[in-house]
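Good morning,

Attaching, inline, the C-alpha cells for the sequence recovery test we're adding to the shared suite. The designed sequence is right after.
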C-alpha cells in the first residue's frame, strides 16, 4: 500500500501546486495561502481525529514518543517552513518550475537521515536515481535562469 499512498500523494500535490499557483498568481500572498492551508489542515485533522476516536488520546500519543519529542518539533517546524517556502517560490516563479526544483528533496532526506540517525539507506539504484534528480534540477535551473 505504501506505493499507492505515495503515488496518490504525488497526484494530490500536483493538483495542489497547480491550484495554489493560480491563486498566488491572481494576487493572494503566499503567507496568506499558507495560513489558510494550515487552518484547513488543523480543522480536517481535528475532525478526522474526533471521528476516529483518537482525539482524546493525542496527548498520550505525544508523551509516548518520549525523548523523540524534539524530533516531533523539528518535523513540525521544518514541514511548516518548507511548505511556506514552496509557496513563496511558486509566487516568485511558477508552480511547475518550483516543484521541479523541490523534487530534489529525496537527496536531502538521505543526507539528513544519515547525519541525524546514522542510517544509510542508499544503494546503487537509489544513488543513481538521486544523480538523475540532481541532473534534472540542473537542467531545469539552467534552462530557466533568465
Amino acid at each position: 500500500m505504501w506505493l499507492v499512498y505515495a503515488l496518490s500523494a504525488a497526484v494530490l500535490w500536483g493538483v495542489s501546486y497547480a491550484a495554489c499557483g493560480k491563486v498566488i498568481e491572481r494576487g493572494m500572498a503566499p503567507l496568506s495561502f499558507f495560513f489558510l492551508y494550515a487552518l484547513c489542515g488543523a480543522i480536517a485533522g481535528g475532525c478526522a481525529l474526533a471521528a476516529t476516536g483518537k482525539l482524546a488520546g493525542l496527548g498520550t500519543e505525544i508523551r509516548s514518543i518520549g525523548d523523540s519529542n524534539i524530533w516531533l518539533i523539528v518535523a513540525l517546524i521544518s514541514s511548516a517552513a518548507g511548505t511556506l517556502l514552496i509557496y513563496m517560490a511558486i509566487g516568485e516563479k511558477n508552480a511547475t518550475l518550483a516543484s521541479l526544483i523541490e523534487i530534489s528533496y529525496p537527496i536531502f532526506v538521505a543526507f539528513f537521515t544519515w547525519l541525524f540517525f546514522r542510517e544509510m539507506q542508499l544503494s546503487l539504484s537509489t544513488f543513481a536515481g538521486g544523480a538523475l534528480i540532481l541532473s534534472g534540477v540542473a537542467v531545469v535551473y539552467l534552462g530557466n535562469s533568465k
